[in-house]
């Protein structure tokens, strides 16, 4: 847990900006829901922007990072989870607590109020915590879909993966199709973490941890069936202190053109001293 207490004062010190590329190592399916089903189309289309180009919603990427950090922190257990939705078949359970040093709640924010725990007494808190981490929608780099790839795609930018579910009694196959962004496609990613007090800075290491966990997990649907493996590269981390916004001071580059491991090393070597160098 962090060094935050209930008395920690919050005032913007600056922002950490991490930008780079996310590459699909296998086909990626971030679903748009069946409401967008078209005649002759896939049963499960991917989400697309107004120009018909696939993208990764920031909410999907942020939610996956949060889920992985909850799991690795031992917080994905009934006593630490609350219900966001109890609709049958569509239950949503996430971690929430009223502890001032809870790193998950500090990074992703929490609202005051009454929430029902999955197990144990109802959580009631008057403490609101502003989210430090913002994750932006990741647009597709169109040039990453090469002419050679397009020759073998089912659509201009996507492929269709056919799957079968087998009934264990009759042996009957139930075919379904899954639209995916193909392996080799790249998306532009942007993460911004607000540093509102000295105690916030180490939280960025948890962000990097979540991204590294994601590289060995899966993003989107069908992860256990081979979809959704991604990697991050070409990363650039910069620090923008208050003077950057107030008087046009230059940002400070912490690391560039790097992998997640190299960014972690650069952050550890800097030991966050840069946040008070203005």
Describe the structure.
The chain has helices spanning 58-72, 103-108, 147-150, 203-215, 242-247, 260-270, and strands at residues 14-24, 55-56, 81-85, 92-95, 113-115, 123-125, 133-135, 138-139, 159-166, 173-180, 186-195, 230-241, 252-258. It has 278 residues and is α+β, with helices and mostly antiparallel strands. The chain has one domain (14-77, 130-276). The strands form 5 sheets. A 5-stranded antiparallel beta sheet has the order 7-11-1-12-13. Strands 2-8 form a two-stranded antiparallel sheet. Helix 1 crosses helix 4. It starts with 13 loop residues before the first strand and ends in an 8-residue tail after the last helix. Residues 35-41 have low confidence and may be disordered.
In sequence order, what are the helices and strands, one letter per element? Answer: EEHEEHEEEEHEEEHEHEH
Query: Segments where pLDDT lies below 50 for 5+ residues?
Result: 35-41
Helix content: 10-25%
Could you tell me the number of beta strands? Answer: 13
Task: Count structural domains.
Answer: 1
